[in-house]
Amino acid sequence: MTAIQPPMDAQKAFTGTTAPEGDDILDTDKLAAWMADNVPGFEGPLEQAKFKGGQSNPTYKLSGPSGDYVLRRKPFGKLLPSAHAVDREFRVQSGLEKVGFPVAPQYGLCTDDDVVGAMFYVMGMVDGRSIWDGSMPGSTPEERRAVYHEMTDVLARLHQVDLAEAGLEDYGKPGNYFERQIGRWTKQYKLSETGHMEPMERLIEYLPASVPEQERTSIVHGDYRIDNMIFAKDRAEVLAVLDWELSTLGDPLADFTYFCLAWVTDNGGRSGVADIDRKALGIPELEEVVERYCEATGRSGVPDMNWYFAYNFFRLAGIMQGIKKRVIDGTASSAHAKAMSERVEPLAEVAWEFAQKAQTAG
C-alpha cells in the first residue's frame, strides 16, 4: 500500500499538553466566571494548557480546585462554511451520554464569542490512555486483539443507537448521505484549493456518478480510529469516543469502511496496520473485523469496499486541503499542521487507485 504519511513517533508527538502562546491564551478570569454559572460544582481559579494532538478545533486542559476539564473551541480567523461546528459536537455527545454510549461528560456550550474569542464547550476530563500507534508498541498480542475487538464492538453499538431515545432524529438529513458528503467535500476542496490536482478532479467526476445505495441510517462519527478514543488504563475498554466534529446522520458503512482504512494503510507510527505483522502482534485480519461487525449489527455482509475506500481517502484529501489552506493563511492550530497539509496529493492518488479498483470490480 502506498504510504500516505511519513513515519513518526505519534505517541510522543501528540501525547500531553503544551503552554498556549499568543492568541491561543484564554482569558481564564472570564472563563472561570462562565464556568461558575454553567458547570455544576466548579471552583476556580483556572489554569490552562493546550493539548498537542489534533489539527482542527483547538483543545485545552483546564485545571481548578474542583478538578480537570476539557475545552474545545472554534479556531480564530476566517473559516470554511459549516466547518468547526463545536455546537454539533456538544449536541451529539450530550445525546449519546443520555443513552449510555461512552463519551466524556458534557457540561456546557458557550455561543458568546466575548468569553474566549470563539464558540466553545466544556466537558469532563476522562482519566485513561490514548493509543496513537495502531501497532500498539509494548502491548501483548492478547491486549492488542482485545482492543481491536472493543473498537469494532463500540462502533457497532454507535450504529445501533436509538436516534429518538438520544434526541438526535434531526441531527442530519435522512438518505442520500454519500451524495451530500461528496458534494460537501468537493465544495470545501474547491474553496480551499491551492493548485490543480488531476486525481481530485477525476474523483470529483467519478464518485457522484457511482454512489452505492444507502440501506441504513445511523449516527456516523466521521473520524472513528484508534487515536480518537480514551481507553481504560488497565483493560481494553473504551471509556470515551472523542472528536465528533465530522459526525452526522448517515450510512453506517461510511464509518465502518473508514475504520477499515487502517488495514489498507501503512503504519508510519499512526493508525495503519497494512505493513506490520498482524498475526504476530495479535491484530485481527480485516475479514474477522468485518464478520464481527456484521454479527453485531445484523448484516449478512458488506459490499466490495473499494468504492468506500476511494470515497474515504477523497474525503481525507479534502480535509487535509482545508488544513493546507489554513497553514498558508496562518490560522492552522497545530504545530503538526504543515506536515499534515503535505498529505493532500498522496491521499488523492490513493483514492483514485481504489476508485479504479472499484470500477474493475463493478
Please provide a written account of the structure:
The chain has 362 residues and is α+β, with helices and mostly antiparallel strands. It folds into two domains: 10-124, Phosphorylase Kinase, domain 1 (2-Layer Sandwich); 141-361, Aminoglycoside phosphotransferase (APH), C-terminal lobe (Aminoglycoside 3'-phosphotransferase, Chain: A, domain 2, Alpha-Beta Complex), CATH 3.90.1200. The chain is built from 13 helices and ten strands. It has helices spanning 10-14, 28-38, 86-98, 141-159, 163-166, 177-191, 198-206, 252-260, 278-281, 286-297, 306-329, 337-341, 344-361, and strands spanning 17-18, 47-51, 59-64, 67-73, 106-110, 120-124, 218-220, 229-231, 238-241, 248-250. A hairpin with a 6-residue loop joins strand 8 (229-231) and strand 9. Helix 4 packs parallel to helix 10, helix 7 (198-206) packs across helix 13 and helix 11 runs antiparallel to helix 13. The model has no long low-confidence stretch (mean pLDDT 91).
| CATH H-level homologous superfamily name of the largest domain | Aminoglycoside phosphotransferase (APH), C-terminal lobe
Count the strands? 10
Overall 3D shape: globular
- Lateral strand order in the biggest sheet: 1-2-3-4-6-5
CATH class of the largest domain: Alpha Beta
How far do the termini sit from each other?
Answer: 21 Å
CATH topology of the largest domain: Aminoglycoside 3'-phosphotransferase, Chain: A, domain 2
The ordered string of helix (H) and strand (E) elements is HEHEEEHEEHHHHEEEEHHHHHH
Largest beta sheet, briefly?
Answer: 6 strands, antiparallel
